Structures are given as C-alpha cells and as structure tokens.
Amino acid sequence: MTRGIWGVGRVTGSVEPEDQDGYFSDLGYWLDRDARVAVEMFVPVDIPLFGEAVSAEDIKAAGIDDLEVFRSPQGSNPSWVSKDQLERLEALLPDWTDEESDETVTVSDYGAGFGSPAKNAVVEAIAMAEVIRVYGTDWKYKEVSADKVGWDITFTHKKTGEVVRAEVKGVSGTQPIVLLTANEIRAAENQAGWYLAVVTSALNKPRITEYSADQALDAAKPYVFKAHLPDA
C-alpha cells in the first residue's frame, strides 16, 4: 500500500469511552482483539477515502518535508500538522468537501435535522417506532407530526388519562445533537407534558434519552435564522 494521505475528513463527535455501546465491536473495526481492548477512549470521525493516495514522495517533492510523521514515523498517532503545513498540503489534495460546513439542513413538516431528506426519513421512522415500542400497551398514542403542533406523538395513559407530548429526534450517531424548529421551541415553552426524546445510534442499536422541556430549552442555541428580505 502506498504510504501517504489516503483521505480527508472531520471529527464527528466528542471523545467517548471506547465501545460503550458495543458499536465498534459489532462493526469489526479491530482485527486484533488485544489491541481493541487496550484502547480506552475514541473520537468518532468521518474520513472519505481518495481513489489513490497522495504519496509521501509527492509531499516531500512539493517541499513539505518537515511534517511530524516524517520526522518521527513511529511517534504520536495522530501526528501534529501546523497551519502552514496544512495550507501547503491542501494544494496537493484532490477536491473534497467539508461536509460539516456545507451540511444539508432539512426542515420539513416532521421537524429539522442534518443530512439528506431520504436518510432523515429513515432515521426518524426508526426513532418514532422505538419510542412507541418503549411506551408499550398501557398508552394510547397518536402521531401528530404533520399537524405542526410542535411535537410528534401524543401519548395518553389508558387508566390515568395522563397526557405526554413527545418530540422525537433520531440521530444516526452516538451524540444527542439535534435541531429544534421555532414551532417545537414554542411548544416546549407553553405545552404541559412536552418532552424531548432523542434516539441515538438509530440505525444500529437505538438508545433513547429523555429531556424535559427545561433541559431542551437550556441547551438550545440559535443555528439558522430565517430572514424575509424586501425585494431589491
């Protein structure tokens, strides 16, 4: 295999305990069991690969011979790269897109999320089904996403009549990072029984974490602003 740069990507989450949900062992990322067990922490990344590597020889030929990985091949992993080195490296790399800065934000009748509408639909459907399953047969439920009321499912307890308004968010990764629409924020502020159910690892091993309205509002930060501008 050619020694060099095989891909460029980004960090997709925070440092976490290694394999806390069995995610990496299930996907078989580790070929050596002892090496996997020895790792205590990991950082999730998304690194699309190039068709062929930018070789170490090409990098050195371009005058970039002071990289840490060249000076200490058996040293730190990952190796450190300065801003100046990165600027010179970018001229050698194939065209690539920083998906985080250009990431699609999908806003629909069913809420808001990162990624394509097709993938979001699958993740959200799994998340909705998982929340309904967890509530079980003691609760009646009605899906109200399309009604634009600010939550997705109204649960009513069959015996007590208690009403719970669940806003459901599905996430394919392990981090509970979601988008809330203005309508959902209003419902969190004004509707009794509103809470946020975030289903992480929806495509692998769905895991539900519940947040109160106050918790959701405290964590919410402006991300996208809609501006109605006058005609030129």
TrEMBL record:
InterPro entries to which the protein is assigned, alphabetical: NOV_C (IPR024975)
Organism: Nocardioides salarius
The name this protein goes by in its record: Protein NO VEIN C-terminal domain-containing protein
Domain called Protein NO VEIN C-terminal: residue spans: 124-209
